[in-house]
Amino acid sequence: MAEATDLIWTAISGLGSSSPFRVQAAAELLLAVIHQHGAKLETVANMGQGIHLRLCSVRIPQAKDNALSAITLLARNHTPELVAAFLDFSMPLDSCAFRLWRALGAEQPVSCLVLAMLLAWLQERPLPTRASNSNPSPKEKNYLRSLAAMNTLLELQFAREFKKAVREAYPQLLLALLTQVHYTLELNLVTEPQRGQQAQEAAMPSPQR
């Protein structure tokens, strides 16, 4: 399996090549290896993020379609990892990320699962807190993914691949989105007074000795 993983990373790297022939070959290799070994792969989240990083630079339609088809194949066995990984680059949701989400839900059973997982992420509502260093804390990361889930759901509800899944889950989807909007508004009401208090404290003169 290590050999298959190495081949996949070689293919992902090749997607960023300036040579159209190499890009096409890389996309074909990526699809072939994932078709053969996709169910047993590990570090799939990193692979999904790697494909996203290079997808926008792919100008050959067939190569781009092959890369997206590889995501569809991976989604059959690795939906949770890919959903979490895709949320990390879906705020805001650019055109490349949107195409990856559509590829993720291209098969009907998977689209229902993706929608259910996005709804679950939407309900992750920890208060945002900053870690002491530049990296987000686990709570901060969950908060950002929750916002990204709302953003993604708003877009995917109109995507052809998710039309049936959205129709079946529409009551839960509507309630979840309304709840998230209410939560976000409440969060702003909580954080704004705190910021005002911090500003007042900063403006107070220090006691004279």
Automatic annotation (TrEMBL):
GO cellular component: cytoplasm
Source organism (scientific name): Marmota monax
Top-rank taxon: Eukaryota
Stated name of the protein: Maestro-like HEAT-repeats domain-containing protein
InterPro entries reported for this sequence: Maestro-like_HEAT (IPR048465), Maestro_heat-like_prot (IPR045206)
Residues in Maestro-like HEAT-repeats domain copies: 2-115
Stored Pfam families: HEAT_Maestro
